[in-house]
């Protein structure tokens, strides 16, 4: 830890929204070549702080001072911040899929002569940037052909093409596989050596600790602490984030299981692109009432495809048997799945789970509307009663059911999705990445809810990319690798090593 | 950050209220410019009559737009359905009821055809109905041999040209006011049950008084001329029907859901395709009804009937707060939008403003309305 000169200083930043103080006197600094992590629960103010830094919220809409290299800055637009060497890589990638890697890197600043793009020089420049990062990518490949991890790396190359000296990474690893994460971290380490300062926002504390020089914790719009990473532990950081000690992340309650709720026999699904490849191969499993069955596997192992096709929402051809409570059922649409007692908290709640523009009430009642409200005519008072109860049970933090769902924090949004499915009174509940992108406190609540539902006799199938979560929550774990089941472990047998071995097919 | 905006859902109805204010401003402006002709019972009766055809189509269009779809063919379909009714009545002598049914059936059938091609053959609605716009105009020109078909049946003409007895008008007003009070009473009772929201009581009472006053004022004005025109009565019935469908049925909720997030709707067990099919059928049927009124008013069906009506209907929806992306909009807003479009037509005609200027103004106002709305949303 060499004392480098300070690149960036943010002093006493206050940003208010009507009724809410999103940032309440936050100070933050970044040194040359430093990796500085910014952690906090959703709603703590991390993204707002970065939006102030990048000019999304222009100078004048907040109070406080920003210094870059000791000079006071007043960013009125994003371009101003970029000119000062600040570049942000947002959670949602901002690449144009139809354009090539090179075109994306130089988007908006193409080398041109008299308005005509100088293609050779564009691709030469792109090649040089990629080589600098040791990225084995062809600049002429359309970005849409790349995996999400490689796209992330292109995004970084793009940021560097703007001579960024301050790089902000907002949850860059959320969609990456472990090997892609390693490549990313390798590149970040190289950038560090070049003196680039990095602000890293992540919920994954393992990564935060593996990479950080310093860690700043935000809570409720205030800085709770900035410490050297070596002086902190994960437990300490979590305690700072939530303002309380988290004793047991996965409180498991053991209890008796009931009858078999769902049985799947020799289930196979072809991929939706009609290449004829099987994405799910001959999978069989059972889950009992009150049992949590975990499905582990690496990205692309076919976990989501398995759930989607069981739910009747997969466009590829499927075969095999599904039995719900011992009865053979045929499921060709989500509606039939729901009628047969299957609920499905899908991954990516913004894309598949919620209508963000609409109210909590509309979202909660969507899947079970005809049962909750009325077959043809809706009854608002009935809906309200049922939703009020769900809101209280799941502790959705909001003052009205008429609140627009998109304005809630990630954790509360996820609770709305969960409520939607619980209101269909399912026998079996599928949970696909139920805690992705939500903060530690909300995770805890979701875990407690899963345990409670299992105790009440719901059969649960849990898919998660976070191994500790699968192992911590499940009574039994099956492991998928390239669409096939390569291992099945009881809770006692399931160690991370064994599951990883099965997941990698060794 | 977690700023909760409870009023964002009402953004579309907020826009409708803004437009209501704009409507009043437009009326006052024309009243002043026409030296007091605009706001006379006679002219207002005319204005409502002019609104009714566009308004009926706009109600159906709104529902299609809610589901994230569009229908460019309604103008041509209006012409075709009207032509079919006229041919049945005049050329084939089928009688009143079969002729009316023929117009509605052809509307529904063509709507369902558009819906099938959109929902099940995955052809974008824009393309399907652009094809419809051309094809159905061709069809009406073909079956009418490009000539105007006159209507002589007095009962049919009465649908478009007669008014209801003032006394019956008052009776309807009484029923409507009673209904408003009943609904309002239920709302207040519901609010009292959830104490957290009791603060809106004054607003609730206002929501009772204003519509009741509007109903009485409306009937008074219409009766001061000739009584409520039949087309206006049909338009109001269709509007109520639309409010009911969008606000109080599962079908309506599904339309908002499909337009808001089609993937989430599908994964919540909603049959997106079947609902899209239905909503196109519904718009087709309403277009058929509008066609009957249009034909009856003019006492003839011409090959050019309904040209550009689709754009009036879409403009009405958008002015009233609907988003062409789907998932946002209200029937009330669409009706206000239709009234604004008709007011501009009516007022500028009274002022003898030349055709091309009228078109320039209407185009400008459409873009201005949406522009102001976008600006308002951004500054929020």
3D architecture notes:
The complex is a heterodimer of chains A (506) and B (380). Chain A is 33% helix and 26% strand. Chain A has 506 residues and is an alpha/beta fold. Chain A has two domains: 6-242, P-loop containing nucleotide triphosphate hydrolases (Rossmann fold); 260-341 and 427-436 and 465-506, Rossmann fold (3-Layer(aba) Sandwich). Chain A has a six-stranded mixed beta sheet with strand order 6-9-10-3-11-12, sandwiched between helices. A six-stranded mixed beta sheet of chain A has the order 18-19-20-15-21-22, sandwiched between helices. In chain A, helix 14 (380-394) crosses helix 15. The relative contact order of chain A is 0.10. Chain B is mainly alpha-helical and 380 residues long. Helix content of chain B is 76%, strand content 1%. Chain B has helices at residues 11-33, 41-66, 74-91, 96-119, 125-143, 154-161, 166-193, 201-225, 230-248, 250-260, 262-267, 272-298, 309-319, 331-350, 355-379; strands at residues 149-150, 300-301. Chain B has a two-stranded antiparallel sheet. In chain B, helix 3 packs parallel to helix 5 (125-143). The model of chain B is unreliable at 1-9 (pLDDT under 50). At the A-B interface, helix 10, helix 11 and helix 14 of A face helix 10 and helix 11 of B.
Helix-strand blueprint:
The complex is a heterodimer of chains A (506) and B (380).
Chain A (H helix, E strand, L loop, with lengths): L5 E12 L2 E12 L3 E5 L6 H8 L9 E6 L2 E3 L4 H6 L2 E4 L11 H5 L6 E2 L2 E2 L1 H14 L15 H14 L4 E5 L7 H16 L3 E5 L3 H7 L2 E6 L2 E7 L5 H9 L17 E11 L7 E11 L3 E5 L6 H8 L7 E7 L2 E3 L4 H6 L2 E4 L3 H5 L6 H6 L3 H4 L7 H15 L15 H13 L5 E5 L7 H16 L3 E5 L3 H7 L2 E6 L2 E7 L5 H8 L3
Parallel strand pairs in A: 3-10, 3-11, 6-9, 9-10, 15-20, 15-21, 18-19, 19-20
Antiparallel strand pairs in A: 1-2, 1-4, 4-5, 7-8, 11-12, 13-14, 13-16, 16-17, 21-22
Chain B lengths: L10 H23 L7 H26 L7 H18 L4 H24 L5 H19 L5 E2 L3 H8 L4 H28 L7 H25 L4 H19 L1 H11 L1 H6 L4 H27 L1 E2 L7 H11 L11 H20 L4 H25 L1
Antiparallel strand pairs in B: 1-2
């Amino acid at each position: 830890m060499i004392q480098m000169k300070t690149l960036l200083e943010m002093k006493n930043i206050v940003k208010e929204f009507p009724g809410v103080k999103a940032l309440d006197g936050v100070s933050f600094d970044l040194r040359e070549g430093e990796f500085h992590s910014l952690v906090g629960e959703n709603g703590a103010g991390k993204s707002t702080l970065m939006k102030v830094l990048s000019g999304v919220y222009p100078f004048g809409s907040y109070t406080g001072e920003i210094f870059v290299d000791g000079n006071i800055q007043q960013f009125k637009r994003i371009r101003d911040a970029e000119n000062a060497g600040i570049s942000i890589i947002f959670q949602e990638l901002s690449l144009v899929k139809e354009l090539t890697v090179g075109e994306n890197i130089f988007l908006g600043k193409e080398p041109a002569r008299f308005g005509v793009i100088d293609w050779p020089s564009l691709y030469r420049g792109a090649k040089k940037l990629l080589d600098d990062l040791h990225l084995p990518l062809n600049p002429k490949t359309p970005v849409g052909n790349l995996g999400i991890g490689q796209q992330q790396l292109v995004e970084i190359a793009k940021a560097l093409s703007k001579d960024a000296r301050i790089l902000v990474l907002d949850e860059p690893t959320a969609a990456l596989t472990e090997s892609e994460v390693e490549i990313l971290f390798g590149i970040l380490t190289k950038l560090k050596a070049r003196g680039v300062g990095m602000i890293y926002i992540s919920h994954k504390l393992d990564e935060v600790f593996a990479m950080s020089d310093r860690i700043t914790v935000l809570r409720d719009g205030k800085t709770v602490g900035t410490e050297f990473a070596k002086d902190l532990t994960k437990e300490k950081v979590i305690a700072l984030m939530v303002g309380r000690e988290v004793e047991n992340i996965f409180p498991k309650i053991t209890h008796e299981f009931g009858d078999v709720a769902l049985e799947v026999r020799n289930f196979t699904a072809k991929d939706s692109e009609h290449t004829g490849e099987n994405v799910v191969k001959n999978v069989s499993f059972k889950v009992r009432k009150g049992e949590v069955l975990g499905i582990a596997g690496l990205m692309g192992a076919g976990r989501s495809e398995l759930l989607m096709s069981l739910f009747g929402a997969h466009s590829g051809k499927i075969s095999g048997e599904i039995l719900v409570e011992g009865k053979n059922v045929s499921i060709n649409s989500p509606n039939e799945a729901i009628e047969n007692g299957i609920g499905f908290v899908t991954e990516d709640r913004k894309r598949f789970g919620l209508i963000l523009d609409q109210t909590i009430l509309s979202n909660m009642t969507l899947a079970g509307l005809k049962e909750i409200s009325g077959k043809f005519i809706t009854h608002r008072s009935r809906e309200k009663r049922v939703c009020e109860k769900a809101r209280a049970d799941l502790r959705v933090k909001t003052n009205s059911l008429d609140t627009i769902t998109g304005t809630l924090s990630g954790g509360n949004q996820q609770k709305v999705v969960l409520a939607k499915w619980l209101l269909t009174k399912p026998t079996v509940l599928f949970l696909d990445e139920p805690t992705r992108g939500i903060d530690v406190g909300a995770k805890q609540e979701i875990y407690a809810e899963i345990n409670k539902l299992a105790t009440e006799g719901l059969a649960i199938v849990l898919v998660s990319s976070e191994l500790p979560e699968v192992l911590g929550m499940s009574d039994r774990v099956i492991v998928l690798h390239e669409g096939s089941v390569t291992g099945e472990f009881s809770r006692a047998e399931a160690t991370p090593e064994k599951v990883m071995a099965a997941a990698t097919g060794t | 950050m977690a700023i909760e905006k409870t009023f964002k859902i009402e953004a579309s109805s907020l826009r409708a209220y803004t437009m209501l204010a704009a409507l009043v401003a437009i009326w006052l402006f024309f009243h002043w410019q026409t030296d007091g002709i605009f706001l006379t019972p006679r002219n207002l009766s005319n204005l409502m009559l002019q609104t009714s055809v566009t308004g009926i189509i706009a109600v159906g269009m709104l529902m299609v737009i809610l589901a994230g779809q569009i229908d460019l063919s309604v103008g041509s379909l209006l012409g075709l359905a009207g032509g079919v009714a006229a041919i049945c009545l005049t050329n084939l002598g089928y009688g009143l009821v079969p002729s009316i049914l023929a117009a509605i059936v052809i509307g529904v059938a063509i709507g369902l055809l558009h819906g099938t091609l959109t929902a099940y053959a995955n052809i974008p609605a824009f393309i399907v109905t652009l094809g419809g716009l051309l094809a159905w105009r061709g069809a009406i020109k073909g079956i009418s041999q490009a000539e105007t078909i006159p209507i002589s049946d007095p009962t049919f003409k009465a649908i478009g040209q007669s008014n209801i007895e003032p006394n019956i008008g008052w009776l309807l007003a009484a029923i409507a006011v009673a209904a408003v009070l009943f609904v309002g009473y239920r709302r207040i009772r519901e609010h009292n049950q959830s104490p957290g929201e009791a603060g809106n009581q004054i607003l609730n009472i206002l929501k009772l008084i204003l519509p009741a006053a509007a109903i009485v004022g409306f009937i008074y004005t219409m009766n001061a001329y000739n009584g409520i025109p039949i087309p206006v009565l049909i338009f109001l019935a269709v509007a109520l029907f639309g409010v009911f469908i969008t606000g109080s049925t599962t079908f309506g909720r599904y339309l908002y859901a499909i337009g808001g997030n089609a993937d989430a709707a599908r994964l919540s067990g909603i049959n997106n395709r079947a609902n899209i099919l239905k909503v196109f059928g519904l718009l087709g049927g309403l277009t058929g009804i509008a066609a009957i009124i249009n034909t009856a008013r003019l006492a003839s069906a011409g090959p050019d009937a309904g040209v550009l009506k689709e754009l009036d209907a879409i403009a009405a929806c958008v002015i009233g707060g609907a988003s062409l992306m789907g998932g946002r909009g209200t029937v009330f807003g669409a009706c206000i939008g239709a009234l604004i479009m008709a007011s501009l037509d009516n007022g500028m005609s009274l002022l003898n403003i030349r055709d091309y200027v009228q078109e320039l103004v209407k185009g400008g106002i459409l873009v201005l309305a949406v522009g102001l709305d976008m600006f308002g949303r951004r500054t929020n």
